Amino acid sequence: MSEHHAGVRWNRVSADFTYQSYNRAHEMTFKNGAIRLAASSAPAFRGEADRVDPEEAYVASLASCHMLTLLAICARKRLTVESYEDDAVGFLEKGSGGKLWVTRVELHPRIRFAEGAEVDGEALKALHRQAHAECFIANSVKTEVVVEPPL
Asked: Which of 42, 90, 71 is nearest to 135 (CA)?
């Protein structure tokens, strides 16, 4: 149905190339280079803390997709949303065989509906369940995606 492009650009700046010495700083590029995001590995892997690491980008992608899907559902149901905030958390853990992977991402959405939008707790849970089921990114990964409080 559609293609989505992203680039990464890295150049060595260290005199030598060992695990301890090579730089992790790079750029993620989008829209044919029009949008640039300063990236690096996580500090735990010798990266730079003031840049986005791939794990953070992955968590943000899941949170963003859930939000955008929920907003689309609400718009179709004529439930006006005033604001949406989420402080998502991803958990990098060792899986079978000792390999690291993001095992779980917890979403913590806070939604403010416009006055007159009647959405009780059960209706909100149903909206989140539907958003999770329709989220393109959540449907593409093996990471467990949990909406807190539980649905």
From this structure: 71
pTM above 0.70, yes or no: yes
Give the pair of three-digit tokens for residue 133. 């089921």
* Residue that is written with structure tokens 């989420």 in the block: 86
Assign a CATH topology to domain 54-147.
GMP Synthetase; Chain A, domain 3 (3.30.300)
Please confirm whether the linkage preceding 54 is cis (ω < 30° from 0).
Answer: no
**Structural domain spans, the chain:** 7-45, 54-147
**pLDDT (tens digit per residue) in 96-138:** 899 999 999 999 999 999 999 989 999 999 999 999 999 999 9
21 — pLDDT class (breaks 50, 70, 90)? very high
User: What HEC string does the chain produce?
Assistant: CCCCCCEEECCCCCCCCCCCCCCCCEEEEECCCCEEEEECCCHHHCCCCCCECHHHHHHHHHHHHHHHHHHHHHHHCCCCEEEEEECCEEEEEECHHHCEEEEEEEECEEEEECCCCCCCHHHHHHHHHHHHHHCCCHHHCCCEEEECCCC
In the numeric block, which tokens belong to residue 127?
């909206």
